[in-house]
Amino acid sequence: MNQSYSTFFKVDQSPEEVFAAINNVRGWWSEEIEGTTDELGEFKYHHQDIHRCTIQITELVPDKKVSWHITDNYFNFVEDKKEWTDTNIVFEIDKKDGKTEVRFTHVGLVPAYECYSVCTDSWGIYINGSLRDLITKGKGQPNQSEQIANKHGIANS
């Protein structure tokens, strides 16, 4: 059984619009991204000293799929600082019943991980909230890591 975290939502916008929004990572996840997020290659994410990671964009299938591979990761709030290292993040875009379905899966982010509750809560907020808003309203809410960290009692060291 696949225990990796997954979530999805449907919107009225086209697969083209959804694909563009996913690749605008600064628009829905964080403005503190270094590198290019809409072509194959690498970008870096960080939030203070709480979380940082290096992400390799491994697959870009226009209007269908985006895949990322986490090559390096650091968390300051769990014992295994590298919990996300070598996991994959997959966005799948599909036309269903006249709507566009967006399915997000963090392959390898499993309940056994110490960060699971914080990470799944965060992805839920960023994917079902911020990314969905970027697609449907043209504006997401990136940089919510502060509120999420506070909610989970994670302090910047």
TrEMBL record:
| Superkingdom, taxonomy of origin | Bacteria
List the Pfam families hit by this protein, alphabetically. Answer: AHSA1
* Activator of Hsp90 ATPase homologue 1/2-like C-terminal domain boundaries: 14-131
Disordered: region residues? 138-157
Output the CDD domains linked to this UniProt entry.
SRPBCC_CalC_Aha1-like (cd07814)
The family note in this entry says: Belongs to the AHA1 family.
What is the designated name of this protein?
SRPBCC domain-containing protein
User: Which species does the entry assign this protein to?
Assistant: Paenibacillus thalictri
Top-down, what is the taxonomic lineage of the species of origin?
Bacteria, Bacillati, Bacillota, Bacilli, Bacillales
